[in-house]
């Protein structure tokens, strides 16, 4: 299925000079408690679009959210994002003091061709998350053209995502088009065999995705916290392992309908405590001690997943297979991630946690596509409409 929305690449480049182009990006990369960036995958992903506009001598109004501020806490400022953008590029970037008000309007009017004005965190303004029409009109007044690049936020009905595109000429940027085209192929026309590696804590996050892909997949390799919901549904004792509430019936239904395609761990690493250097051991899934936690997949499971990965032509990976925040419990995730990266298959990773593991292991360049969308990618693969995409006009 072709992505049939208006695209930046179709807009005559000679008409961009002097135009104010409002780029809604997702620059929400991970940061520490002080607001210092610990990753820059999303920033890097939008650089081609910004560079294209700068070289076309457009005036770029760049906007993004960053974290979930309650007020205007300094650690949620985009100062660190501006610094990283400057380190990664030669762009001339000005950081606005706010995301609304006359000062912002003045700066946008003073912007020279080929320069970038980065608005302060959009979530500093309550109107953004409330999808306030007045705030949407203010943002729209800053641009002559709107370019959608915030795939990771496209599932949210926020002012800059789903309202501004209705007010000025709008189109999808390079990154958004790549995200949708890649996931469209995965959903509608994947090269077979298709293998899904699914992890993370919650079955509820993946139910609809599994349902939408199950007819196309060769196998779904399940690890992480969600695997214990399925093991419990099969009657195994899982000790103190994490299990999402009220998922027994759902897990049983999924297994009942698609049991042959869903591969569950045959052995797991268990630990006495959820902390570094805890006593731990590998056991078969029918030997999990009552007071121990399941924290990672075991070596036999790794080999089983490796066999599936080795015969795949397309692989989609979403979710860690163990508690990756504790290095002792991250081996299964890291080794399976390496097998996926080294595969000759088309390889796509989706989800913030998965992308962070890929980045941490420096495997970005070995994946066909590392999606910048977490919840948005899952919603898309569920078959749901994403407000930030459905609002964009169709290609004529």
UniProtKB/TrEMBL annotation:
Gene3D superfamilies: Phosphoglycerate kinase, N-terminal domain (3.40.50.1260). GO terms for cellular component: cytosol. GO terms for biological process: gluconeogenesis; glycolytic process. Substrate binds at residues 26-28, 42, 65-68, 123, 156. SUPFAM superfamilies: Phosphoglycerate kinase (SSF53748). Coiled coil: none annotated. InterPro entries: Phosphoglycerate_kinase (IPR001576), Phosphoglycerate_kinase_N (IPR015824), Phosphoglycerate_kinase_sf (IPR036043). Pathway: Carbohydrate degradation; glycolysis; pyruvate from D-glyceraldehyde 3-phosphate: step 2/5. It catalyses: (2R)-3-phosphoglycerate + ATP = (2R)-3-phospho-glyceroyl phosphate + ADP. GO terms for molecular function: ADP binding; ATP binding; phosphoglycerate kinase activity. It holds the Pfam family PGK. Its EC number is 2.7.2.3. It is found in: Cytoplasm. (2R)-3-phosphoglycerate binds at residues 42, 123, 156. Keywords: ATP-binding, Cytoplasm, Glycolysis, Kinase, Nucleotide-binding, Transferase. ATP binds at residues 206, 294, 325, 351-354. Monomer. Belongs to the phosphoglycerate kinase family. This is Phosphoglycerate kinase. It comes from Thermodesulfobium narugense DSM 14796. The lineage of its organism: Bacteria, Pseudomonadati, Thermodesulfobiota, Thermodesulfobiia, Thermodesulfobiales.
